[in-house]
Amino acid sequence: MDTLREADVCALLELVGESNAHRSLRSFREGILPGLRRLVPCEISSYNEVEAARVRDLGSGRRA
């Protein structure tokens, strides 16, 4: 298993601090992607929400 560099850990902790500073879900939704793109450079990024009450367990009830 590879070890994270100290700079990577610091960047991750900075993002966690930034995400904790959002005081509303709307603010979090708007602000999290720029921080993630700084942490993981990429061309495309997305933010998805899953409402746990609507998620079905599609793996249960399999036939033998």
Individual helix count? 2
Rounded Rg = 17 Å
Alpha-carbon distance between the two ends: 37 Å
| Count of DSSP strands | 0
Low-confidence stretches: 59-64
Structural class: mainly alpha
Helix and strand run:
HH
Biggest sheet overview: none
Fraction in beta strands = under 5%
- General shape: extended
Mean of pLDDT: 82
* Percent in helix: 40-55%
Properties at a glance:
64 residues, mainly alpha, 2 helices, disordered C terminus
Task: Tell me what you see in this structure.
- The protein has 64 residues and is mainly α.
- Helix content is 48%, strand content 0%.
- The chain has two helices and no strands.
- The protein has helices at residues 6-21, 25-39.
- The longest helix is centred in the N-terminal third of the chain and has 16 residues, at 6-21.
- The chain is extended and about 40 Å long.
- Mean pLDDT is 82; it is low at 59-64.
In short:
Helix content is 48%, strand content 0%. The protein is mainly alpha-helical.
How are the SSEs placed, and which strands pair?
Layout: H1 6-21, H2 25-39
Helix pairs in contact: 1-2
